Amino acid sequence: MVMYGLRGRCVAMLLAWGLSCVALPAWAEGDFDSAVAAYEAGDYAAARQLWEQALAAGDWAAARSLGTLYRKGLGVDADAARAVDYYHQAMAHGVANADINLAEMILTGQGVPRDVDKAKALLKTAADQGNPAAQFRLDEIEDAETRAQPPPALAAPPPAMPIADGVTLARALVGSYGSDDEAASAWMAYNLPGLTPQLEPAFTPGQSRLIRLYAVGPEDIVTRLCDDVRSRGEPCLISK
């Protein structure tokens, strides 16, 4: 992954989100940072608009970011087929990590037929090109196969939630854990009716894989959850 100027801060923040930090074209570095800030604040509609403008201006890294919005249904209706198309566009133009995102969708059969061998082939190509996140994921799948277990799937986006008029959805980071099982156990302690758990893997080259646990739901319920988390002496970050 190549970073320039202000994008240097993207590495830890965006790798887990499946967004792109690559060399900027002429459409301006500040716009990309604005899109990142909008995404981080939960203003996915604004992020989408900025990335659509970037893509129209020839920044193919924005195609990967748009693919992630459609894969997760953030600010748009979830559309796996459209996400796959965006990832294909990004891959065709050499955008780093788009092949990993597409491999995950192939692995779980999102928007495309499920094909573990094809997913592994994409990851191996990326790993052979020096991508440590791809190598880690490939090792993880092959280790599961060796133990005759289904390939561990990355967390799927939460199901679509009916939103009543005037209800604002929020998303809260309630903790990071060493495995899916640890995150699932933590959710049992934090769970409140009306909230959906969302797990996201965080890859940091040279360090262990972490699972970030989020809660998604109406703002008032998410706020109550965060109050509980903070009462335990833990931080809780809310975005809308």
Structure description:
With 240 residues, this protein is an alpha+beta fold. Helix content is 50%, strand content 12%. The protein contains ten helices and four strands. It has helices at 10-15, 29-40, 44-56, 61-72, 80-92, 98-108, 116-128, 132-146, 180-190, 219-231, and strands at residues 169-177, 196-202, 210-218, 237-239. The chain has a four-stranded antiparallel sheet with strand order 2-3-1-4, with helices on one face. Helix 3 (44-56) packs antiparallel against helix 4 and helix 4 (61-72) packs antiparallel against helix 5 (80-92). The protein is globular, with a radius of gyration of 18 Å. The two termini are 28 Å apart. Residues 1-28 and 154-164 have low confidence and may be disordered.
What is the topology?
Layout: H1 10-15, H2 29-40, H3 44-56, H4 61-72, H5 80-92, H6 98-108, H7 116-128, H8 132-146, E1 169-177, H9 180-190, E2 196-202, E3 210-218, H10 219-231, E4 237-239
Antiparallel strand pairs: 1-3, 1-4, 2-3
Helix pairs in contact: 2-3, 3-4, 4-5, 5-6, 6-7, 7-8
